[in-house]
Specification:
Helix content is 37%, strand content 10%. It has 653 residues and is an alpha/beta fold. It is globular, with a radius of gyration of 27 Å. The two termini are 50 Å apart. The relative contact order is 0.09.
C-alpha cells in the first residue's frame, strides 16, 4: 500500500474527495457502457441457455453501476458535510494520462472476456495483485507524488480504489482531531441526501465522524469487500460473471455476449484518432447527440439537487428528475449499440460516449433555475420525438422526458406563486375534497345494495380480504352465502359508514341520501405498511389513470396481476416487514391535501404530496412530501425504493 501525504487542511481533503468522485463517476460510465452492449432476444443469435445467462450478467453489471452511483452520492454527501461543493465533473473518455494513477486505465468497451477481466482488476481488494484485461494497457508510466511541505493540494498515486478511501478516512480522522467534529462538519445538514430523497442502495446522510465512517465503509465493502470476505462485493460479482462468460465461450467458440459496440466512441472528429471511433452514421450521430444531452441534463439536475438546502420538495424534484433522465438515457445508450458507427469502421456499432461540458456549473436558485432546467427538458423531449423513428423503444423516452419537463415546470409555477404570496402568511391546510361516487357503469364490476338512506357498493377486484367488513358488521356482509350478501338495511347508516371507512383497499364505498356527509379525505394522509403485504393508503388519492378515491392498497410484492393495486399475490411467499426502521424526518407543516401516485413503468411508485408513512403498529417511519416507494419487492430499504427494480429486471406489465 502506498504511503499518502497526510491531510493537513480542509482543501486537501476536498481534493482527495474530488478525485474519488471522478473515479466513481468514471467507473459507473464504464460499467453502464458494458451493460448497454449486451445482447438480448432481439439480436436472435443466442442459444436458448445463453440468453438467461446474459440477462443475469446485465442485471449484475447494472446493480454494480447503481452502487457506483451510490458511491458518487456518498462522496457528494461527504463533501457537502465539510462545507465543500459536490463534484460531478470528470474528463471525457478515454481518460487522459495524469487524471488518475497510470495503472488506472478507464475506457469505454463492450462486454467481453477482456473487459470483465479489467473490471475485476479495477475492483480488486488492497493487497491482491492481478493482471489487467488484454487491451487495457498502460500507455504511459508516471508517478504522482505530492510533497508534504506544499500548501497547494496535489494528486497522489494509489494502487487500488480502496487505498484512496483509506487515505480519505485518515484525513477525516486527523482533521476531526485537529478541528473538532463541529469544526470539521460545517456543512448545512439540510443539504444532505438520504433515502427519503433518493432511491439508492445504502445512501445515507453525513453529519459527523461516525456517519462519515459509515459512508466510507459502505463504499469500500460494496466495492472490494471486507478483508478476507468479498462475497457480494463488486470484485466477487465481476469475478463470477467473468467465470460464467469463460464457460459459455469454451462451450461455443463463436459465442459473443455483446454487440460489436465501438471502443471509446466520440461525437466529434478527434485530434488523436488512435483508440477512438468517431460516430458519423447519421442515425447514430443524431441519437448520440440526444443521449449525451440528456446525460448532461441529468448531471446538472443531480448537482442542483445536492447543493440545495432547506426546501426538501424542490430538492426531491431535482433528484427524482435526475434519475428519470438517466432512465431515458439508458434506453438511448442501449439502442446506440445496435446502429453502425462509421463507414471507416465496418462491422463496428456505435455507443454512447458520456460526453460532458467543460463544467456542470450550479445555476442560482430561484425562478431562473427552474426556467433553465424546464426549457432544456422540454427541448430534449422534442428531440427524443424527432429520433423516435430510429427504434421503437425511443418512444418511451419521449414520455419520460415530457413527465420530467412537467415536474420542473410545476416547480417554476410554485416559485411564481411564492413570489406573489404574502411571505408572513402561515401555511394553510389544503381544502378538503369530497369523493362523489358515480352510479355503477356497465363493466365496472361493482355490486350495489341500497336503502332509501344509503347505497352500499362493493368492488370485488379491489378487495384484499382484510375482513374488517365481515367481522365489524356481520349482518351487513354475509360471507359464504348464495345469492344477495350485502344487507345495509340491518344497521344504522352511521354503523355502515364506520365499517366502510375501515376497508383499507377502498373496495367498499357508500353514498348517503339522508343528508349526512359523504366520505371526506382524512385530516392526515397516511400510508400504512402491512406485514408481508401491500401499502394501505388513506388520503385524497389521485392515482394516475384511475378515478379519485380515498382508500387503496397498492402492490409492493411485484407479483400482482392488477398493478398498481394489490390482488393478494403477496400471500404466495412474499416476506417484508411491516415494522421497518424509522427514517429521521421533521414534522410536516401541512398534513393533508391531494396525494398523487404515479406508477413509473418498470419502476417504483412516485408519490407526491404530504403523507406520513407508518408501520403496522402506527409508529412513524417517514414524514415526507414526496418519495419513491418500492413495488418490485426487492428493495433492501423497503418501503423506499433503492433501485433494485433495474437490477432484477422488474416489469410492471
Amino acid at each position: 500500500m502506498k504511503r499518502f501525504v497526510p491531510v493537513h487542511n480542509r482543501e486537501q481533503l476536498q481534493a482527495l474527495l474530488a478525485e474519488a468522485a471522478e473515479v466513481e463517476h468514471d467507473l459507473m460510465c464504464c460499467y453502464l457502457y458494458a451493460a448497454f452492449s449486451l445482447k438480448d432476444a432481439r439480436d436472435g443469435d443466442l442459444l436458448e441457455h445463453e440468453l438467461p445467462a446474459i440477462e443475469r450478467w446485465r442485471a449484475t453489471i447494472l446493480r454494480v453501476a447503481l452502487e457506483e452511483m451510490t458511491h458518487l452520492s456518498l462522496v457528494a454527501n461527504l463533501m457537502t458535510a465539510i462545507g465543500a461543493p459536490p463534484h460531478f465533473d470528470r474528463s471525457n473518455f478515454p481518460i487522459s494520462a495524469g487524471a488518475h494513477p497510470s495503472r488506472l486505465v478507464l475506457e469505454l468497451a463492450p462486454c467481453d472476456r477482456a473487459t470483465l477481466e479489467h473490471f475485476v482488476f479495477l475492483e480488486r481488494p488492497v493487497g491482491i495483485e492481478l493482471p489487467d484485461g488484454a487491451g487495457f494497457d498502460v500507455t504511459r508510466s508516471y508517478s504522482r507524488d505530492a510533497r508534504p511541505t506544499r500548501y497547494m493540494p496535489s494528486a497522489q498515486d494509489y494502487d487500488t480504489v480502496g487505498e484512496l478511501y483509506a487515505a480519505i478516512r485518515i484525513g477525516f480522522d486527523h482533521l476531526s482531531d485537529e478541528l473538532g467534529e463541529k469544526g470539521l462538519f460545517i456543512g448545512d445538514p439540510s443539504a444532505q441526501v438520504g433515502p427519503d430523497l433518493m432511491s439508492l442502495p445504502a445512501i445515507r446522510a453525513v453529519t459527523d465522524l461516525a456517519s462519515a465512517h459509515a459512508a466510507l465503509d459502505t463504499i469500500v465493502l460494496q466495492g472490494e469487500g471486507a478483508p478476507g470476505h468479498s462475497e457480494g462485493s463488486h470484485f466477487a460479482m465481476f469475478s463470477q460473471v467473468r467465470d460464467e462468460h469463460a464457460e459459455l465461450s469454451a462451450a461455443r467458440p463463436d459465442f459473443r455476449a455483446a454487440r460489436p459496440a465501438a471502443r471509446n466512441p466520440v461525437m466529434r472528429s478527434p485530434l488523436d484518432p488512435r483508440g477512438r471511433v468517431w460516430i458519423v452514421e447519421p442515425d447514430a450521430a443524431a441519437l448520440l447527440d440526444v443521449a449525451n444531452s440528456i446525460y448532461t441534463l441529468s448531471l446538472r439536475l443531480l448537482c442542483q439537487g445536492f447543493v440545495r438546502s432547506g426546501d426538501r420538495d424542490a430538492k426531491r424534484t431535482l433528484l427524482a428528475s435526475a434519475v428519470d433522465a438517466m432512465r431515458a438515457f439508458a434506453i438511448l445508450g442501449t439502442e446506440l449499440t445496435r446502429l453502425p458507427a462509421s463507414p471507416e469502421h465496418p462491422g463496428v456499432n456505435a455507443g454512447v460516449s458520456f460526453a460532458l461540458l467543460r463544467s456542470v456549473d450550479t445555476i442560482p436558485h430561484g425562478r431562473s433555475e427552474w426556467t433553465f432546467l424546464a426549457e432544456r427538458a422540454r427541448e430534449l423531449a422534442g428531440a427524443c420525438g424527432s429520433i423516435a423513428r430510429i427504434a421503437s423503444p425511443i418512444a418511451h423516452t419521449v414520455r419520460v422526458m415530457e413527465r420530467l419537463a412537467g415536474a420542473l415546470e410545476e416547480q417554476r409555477a410554485l416559485e411564481d406563486q411564492r413570489a406573489t404570496s404574502t411571505p408572513s402568511a402561515p401555511p394553510q391546510p389544503s381544502p378538503r375534497r369530497t369523493l362523489t361516487v358515480v352510479p355503477p357503469q356497465p363493466g365496472a364490476f361493482v355490486e350495489e345494495a341500497r336503502t332509501e338512506e344509503v347505497a352500499l357498493r362493493f368492488e370485488g377486484r379491489r378487495c384484499i380480504h382484510a375482513r374488517h367488513c365481515v367481522l365489524g358488521e356481520p349482518t351487513v356482509f354475509l360471507a359464504n352465502v348464495q345469492g344477495p350478501w350485502l344487507h345495509p338495511e340491518t344497521v344504522s347508516v352511521e354503523a355502515l359508514v364506520r365499517v366502510a371507512q375501515a376497508c383499507p383497499s377502498g373496495a367498499i364505498t357508500y353514498q348517503r341520501f339522508d343528508g349526512g356527509p359523504q366520505e371526506e379525505a382524512p385530516a392526515v394522509n397516511t400510508i400504512r405498511i402491512r406485514e408481508n403485504g401491500p401499502l394501505a393508503i388513506h388520503a385524497a388519492l389521485a392515482i394516475e389513470g384511475e378515478d379519485p378515491r380515498h382508500r387503496a392498497t397498492l402492490c409492493r410484492c411485484g407479483r400482482s396481476r392488477k398493478k398498481p393495486f394489490c390482488d393478494g399475490s403477496h400471500t404466495e411467499g412474499f416476506a417484508a416487514s411491516g415494522e421497518p426502521a424509522s427514517i429521521e424526518t421533521t414534522a410536516l407543516p401541512v398534513r393533508d391535501g391531494t396525494l398523487a401516485v404515479v406508477p413509473i413503468e418498470d419502476g417504483p411508485l412516485d408519490v407526491r404530496g404530504n403523507v406520513e408513512i407508518c408501520a403496522g403498529t402506527g409508529r412513524i417511519v417517514l414524514r415526507t412530501s414526496g418519495v419513491r416507494l418500492c413495488r418490485c419487492g426487492g428493495s433492501s430499504t423497503k418501503p423506499v425504493c433503492d433501485g433494485t427494480h433495474a437490477r432484477i429486471g422488474f416489469r410492471s406489465s
